[in-house]
Batch of 2 targets.
Target 1
Amino acid sequence: MIKLENISFKYPNSKTNVLSDLNMTINDNQIIAIVGKNGSGKSTTAKLLSGVLKLKKGKITIDDTDISKFKKSKDLQNNVGIVFQNPENQIIFNNIYDEISFPIKNLEKSEIDKRVDNALGEVEMSSLKDKELYSLSLGQKQRIVIAEVLARKPKYIILDEPTTMIDSFGKEKIYEIIKNLKNQGYTIILVTNIADEILLADKVFILDSGKITHEIDKSDFISNADIFKEYGLEIPTLLHILVELKKSGVDIDLKDLNVSEFVNYLKGKLLNEKLN
Ligand SMILES: Nc1ncnc2c1ncn2[C@@H]1O[C@H](COP(=O)(O)OP(=O)(O)OP(=O)(O)O)[C@@H](O)[C@H]1O
Ligand SMILES: [Mg+2]
C-alpha cells in the first residue's frame, strides 16, 4: 500500500504551492488512474512517488516504509518504477539488451539475462529483441521502457500519460500489458487524460489545483460520470451509453466490461427478444 499524507510541494522557482495538503491511499493490486486538468499536479505527484523529485513537506510510505528512509533514489525506484510520456526521452542505448539491463547491471549476468528475458516476454517484445531500438515504433519503444522498469522488479508501476504519443494499435497493446500486469499482482498508477483509459482503472483519483477532490470506485463511475466532465475529462463512450441506459431504467454493471463485451451483451438481448 502507498500512502501520501499531507503532501505540499513548491518548485524552487514558483511562488505558490503546486500540491497542497494532498492525501491519497493506493491499495495493492489495483489499477488506479490519476486524472485532472493540465497543470493540476499529476506529474509532480508521480515524480514525488518515484523519487524523481524530492519530498519536502508531508510523508509518503510504501508498505509501511517511509520513503525518506531509502538511502538512494535507486532503492526507491526498485520499488516504484516510472514510465513517462515520450519513450525517446527515457532510452539511452540502441541495443535492447543494453537498454533493459542498464539499471540492473550490478546483478549477476545469469540473473540479468533472466530478468531481461522475462521483461521482454511481459511486454510481448521477445521476437523483436535483436532489433535496433531506433528502428522500432513509438509504441514498441514504450514497451521496451516498460520492460526496463519491470526488470527492476518493482511492485508499483507509475505510467505518466504513457500512450499520448502512440497510435491506436500501440495504445491497445499497452492496455493489454497493463491489464496483464495487474493480473500478476502489480499495482499500476496510470496518470491519464484519455477518456477511455479511465475504464481500465479500479479507482480514479481526481486532482485539481494540487488537491485530491474526488476518489471514485469503478462501481460508482456510472453515477458519477458528470464529475469527470466537470474536471475536464471526456466521458468514455461506453460509460456515456451506460449512463443513458441507466436514465431510461436499464441498469448494467460496468465491471470489466469493454465495448466488444457490451456488443455481445446487446446481441444476446436482441436475439432473446427475437426468439420470444
Ligand atoms: N520544473 C518546474 N518548475 C516550475 N514549475 C513547474 C515545473 N514543473 C511543473 N511546474 C508547474 O507545476 C504545476 C503542476 O504541473 P504538473 O506537471 O505536475 O501538472 P500535470 O497535471 O501533470 O499537467 P499536464 O496535464 O499538463 O501534464 C503547473 O502549474 C506547472 O506549470
Ligand atoms: Mg503531466
Target 2
Amino acid sequence: MIRIHNVRKSFQDLDVLKGISFAIEDSEIFGIIGQSGAGKSTLLRCINGLEAYDSGEIEVDGTVVSVKDKSKLKYLQKQMGMIFQGFNLLERLDVYDNVALPLKFWGISPKTPENRKKILELLGLVGLEDKVHAKPRELSGGQKQRVAIARALVLDPRFLLCDEATSALDPEITKEILGLLQKINRELGITIVIVTHQMEVVKQVCDRVAFLSDGVVLAEGKPEDLFVKPDRPEIRSFLREESNLLPKEGVNIQLFFSGEGSDEPVVTHMARTLQRDFSICWAKLEDFRENVYGSLVINVRKEDRESVCAFLDEKKVAWEVIS
Ligand SMILES: Nc1ncnc2c1ncn2[C@@H]1O[C@H](COP(=O)(O)OP(=O)(O)OP(=O)(O)O)[C@@H](O)[C@H]1O
Ligand SMILES: [Mg+2]
C-alpha cells in the first residue's frame, strides 16, 4: 500500500503540494482527479521518486520514498510501473523490443526462453499478439498504450501508476484501455493509481478517488459519494454543476437517487398525491461501475416547500434545498 502523509512540495516560490495526506490500499484502483495545475502529476512523480518532496512522508509498501537513497529508490521504482499520455515508445524498436526495454535497463536478458515467454504472454494479455514485430508508427493510439502497459508490467511491479493514460484517446478506446486496466487489477492483483482530469475515467474504474484542487485534497472517498452529492463548490464547479441556471423564483430542491428505490416513480407519485405542479429544472444519471446514481432538481412554489419535503422524507428520498 501507499501512504502519503502531509506531503509538501514547491517549485521556487510556487507551492504546488500543500500538505497532502491519504492512503491507497492494496489491490484497489485509486483515482487522483482535479483541474489542470492542481498538482496531480507532481504528486505521482513524488510517489515514484522522479521528483523529491520537501517535507512530509511517502511510504510505499512500508519503505519511505526518498531520492537520497538511490539503491532503495531503484528497488522501489522497480515495483512501480508507469504509463503516460504520450506512450513514450521508442520509434526505432518494434513492439517486442519496446516491452523488453525495462529488462535490458536492469541487465536482464530478454532473450532467455523464460523472458521470451513472459513478453509474449504480456502481449497476449494486452491483446497485441499479432503486432509483436510492428513498429510504433504502424499502431493506433490505443495499441500504443497497450504496448506501454505491457512494458510497464514486464518487471512484475506491484503498482501501476497512470498519468493521464487515456487523455489522448477517444471515448471508445478509453473504455477498452480502462477495461484492460481492470483486468490487470483483477487477474494480477496489481494496485493501480490513475491520475486524470476525466470524470468518466474515475466513474468507470476507480474504487476510491481523491479530489485535488490547488495542491490540497478537498475530498476523498468512493466516486459515487463524492460526485453524486458534491458539497464543495470547487467540486461542483469542476463538474460544471454551478446552479446559476436554476430559476430565481420559488424553491429549488435537489433529490438524490442511489441504489434502492431509485427506480420508483417518486416524482409523479408526489405530483398526484400532493396535487401540486412543479418544474423539473435539471437532472443527471450517472453510471458508477455497476450502479446507477442520479439527482434531479425540481422547482416548487414557496408555499409548497413544507409538504414536498415531508413527502420526500416519508419516501426516504435524500434531498437538499439549493440556496
Ligand atoms: N518542474 C517544474 N518546475 C516549475 N513548476 C512546475 C514544475 N512541474 C510542475 N510545475 C507547476 O506545478 C503546478 C502543478 O503541476 P502538475 O503538472 O502537477 O499539475 P497537474 O494537476 O498534473 O495538471 P495537468 O492536469 O495539466 O496535467 C503547475 O502550476 C505547474 O506549472
Ligand atoms: Mg498532469
